[in-house]
Amino acid sequence: MRVLGIESTCDETAAAVVETDENGRPHILSNAVLSQIAQHAAYGGVVPEIAARAHVEVIDHLVARALDEAGVTFDELDAVAAAAGPGLIGGVIVGLTTAKALALVTGKPFIAINHLEAHALTPRLTDSVNFPYLLLLVSGGHTQLVAVRGVGDYVRLGTTIDDAIGEAFDKTAKMLGLPYPGGPEVEKQALRGNPERFALPRPLNGRAAPDFSLSGLKTAVRVEGERVSPLSATDIADLCASFQAAVVDVIVDRTRAGLRAFREVAARPNALVVAGGVAANGAIRAALHQLATESGLKLVTPPPALCTDNGAMIAWAGLERLRLGVTDDLSAPARARWPLDSVKAEVPAEAAEAET
Ligand code: ATP
Ligand code: MG
Ligand code: FE
């Protein structure tokens, strides 16, 4: 089976072709991604209107490139999938409409993918992970702990009640005068800073519900920064190190709470999976590795290029659905909001029979 996947929910335009071999093992044939970071950098964040226009300008080239690099024609595809949300609606419409038009003219099935579901299923593309598993999704827009029980069977155990973790990294960086996107910059500064110099809060640590809160931590960085201002290079490095150490503590404590909550909704997890752009952070990876080892779990962290937004994850989620016989109507709407909990996979009766 071979699926084209299109992604345009935020600031990456992406198209990819993924196929499964006769043993059902996945292969990424192409994964073309064009980041708009440079176009948004001057504003210190993603500007929705600029994002939507930028997707329109490049999407057809990216689809052509994905097919070209994969060495396949439209005829050799089994379906066309696109992220239908959640995300910035102008961008979502661009990718979704492109996929629908391609499905219509080629006569191939169309599959509408929830962007979060695609992040959630990525570990099955990069590693052989069986259901169920615990997913920690940490990106610029999302911070969630999810019990992944099957395709279309997700239980959100916890989420952030204010900022996403990536957003907290980006806002902290901006406050300290570091360039956008701030995550990698903060990590770089933290390497040479003193993580114990500033006593910062660990919001919600110790609570049973595996939720997150980041805005108080970000405010505490601002207050400490103002207290020692004007900031020297050492002050900035120490603030970054102290901030990152607090985030690491929060992630470990909240994930531990997530593992406890997991037991109430599923059998023992087969892995702890970390996805999203923040999963690129070395200190966070190391701490989660230790937590997984302590808990007797395998830690799965897809490579950074598949952790951040990409087309292969959309193609793969499409393939997981297609092989269950789940496809969508061309009337599938673009959605700005689309909670992962509400995603289902309605397996048609004939397909369910064929499986057994
Ligand atoms: P979403 O996928 O939720 O719609 P997004 O596109 O912003 O949002 P990603 O592209 O997955 O998310 O990740 C980008 C985020 O990851 C940014 O907030 C960025 O600062 C953060 N990030 C990237 N690298 C690092 C790092 N080394 N340390 C911390 N944060 C990082
Ligand atoms: Mg992004
Ligand atoms: Fe994403």
Give the tags.
binds adenosine-5'-triphosphate; globular; single chain; five-stranded mixed beta sheet; 356 residues; binds magnesium ion; alpha/beta; binds fe (iii) ion
Description of the molecule:
The protein has 356 residues and is an alpha/beta fold. Helices cover 45% and strands 18% of the residues. Strands 3-2-1-4-5 form a 5-stranded mixed beta sheet, with helices on both faces. α2 (48-70) packs parallel to α3 (89-106), α7 packs antiparallel against α8 and α8 (233-262) packs parallel to α9 (282-294). It starts with a strand and ends with a helix. The mean pLDDT is 95.
Helix % is 40-55%
Run of helices and strands: EEEHHEHEHEEEHHHHEHEHHH
- Average predicted confidence as pLDDT: 95
Bound molecules: adenosine-5'-triphosphate, magnesium ion, fe (iii) ion
Number of helices: 12
Kindly provide the radius of gyration, computed on alpha-carbon positions and rounded to a whole number of angstroms: 21 Å
Structural class: alpha/beta
- The N- to C-terminal Cα distance equals 20 Å
Total count of strands: 10
Unreliable residue stretches: none
Per the principal axes of the C-alpha atoms, what is the gross shape?
Answer: globular
- What's the main sheet like? 5 strands, mixed
Q: Estimate what percentage of residues fall within beta strands.
A: 15-25%
Query: Biggest sheet: strands side by side, in what order?
Result: 3-2-1-4-5
